[in-house]
Design goal:
By secondary structure, the protein is of the alpha/beta class. It has a single domain, classed as TIM Barrel (Alpha-Beta Barrel). Helix content is about 40%, strand content about 20%. The chain contains 10 helices and 9 strands. Strands 1, 2, 3, 4, 5, 6, 7, 8 and 9 form a 9-stranded mixed beta sheet that branches. β8, α8 and β9 form a beta-alpha-beta unit. α8 packs across α10. The longest helix is centred in the last third of the chain and has 11 residues. The radius of gyration is 16 Å and the shape is globular.
């Protein structure tokens, strides 16, 4: 997953050429988000090699965008990225608070056509003390779409715990700072009984 979190703040499109170069080297599904404001933006990313597009701020401002994207691209290609702090949804890379509750927005997003939810707990993000299990469970119970938990991973046990509820877990800083950690993390997850596919 590649999230160009500065794109919305800088009022620009996602870096399509960068997406094209990354996609050419990947052998795994690739989701791209940031700066997606229209079906044309989303199509440009898919044409560059993304498999799915993630939308956040634009969908909050214009919820019908989700329906338009699903109608044009198929729900399987539409991911709603939901950033949550204190139970409330935030937009613009977490800098703006909205009046929406996380569960209600997740439910509405799926009803409008989102095929997947990327759920980031701002409260847990960067703490490495574990995912927000309560938030994840609440959202997962409210929708029939896959939920990717994000924010708080510090160990293999944290990942295993959240996967008891969520369908996937996003790992960021724990691997950005130590990419070699991925190999040992995969082994630790297997030891905890988590099914992990072999790497490409």
């Amino acid at each position: 997953m590649f999230l160009d979190v500065r794109a919305t703040l800088e009022q620009r499109s996602t870096l399509v050429e960068l997406v094209r170069r990354v996609a050419a080297r990947l052998q795994i599904p690739f989701t791209v988000g940031g700066g997606v404001r229209s079906a044309a933006d989303a199509e440009a990313l898919l044409e560059a090699g993304a498999d799915k597009v993630a939308v956040n701020s634009a969908a909050l401002q214009q919820p019908e965008l989700l329906s338009a994207l699903a109608a044009r691209l198929g729900s399987q290609a539409v991911v709603i990225a939901i950033d949550v702090e204190g139970g409330r949804v935030r937009s613009h890379a977490g800098t703006f608070e909205t009046a929406r509750g996380a569960v209600d927005w997740a439910r509405e997003s799926v009803e409008r056509g989102a095929g997947e939810i990327l759920l980031t707990s701002i409260d847990a993000d960067g703490t490495r003390s574990g995912y927000d299990l309560e938030l994840t469970a609440a959202v997962t119970a409210a929708v029939d779409a896959p939920v990717i938990a994000s924010g708080g991973a510090g160990s293999a046990r944290h990942v295993a715990e959240v996967l008891e509820t969520a369908q996937a877990a996003l790992l960021a800083s724990i691997l950005h700072e130590d990419p070699a950690r991925l190999g040992s993390l995969r082994r630790e997850l297997r030891e905890l009984g988590v099914v992990v596919r072999d790497g490409a």
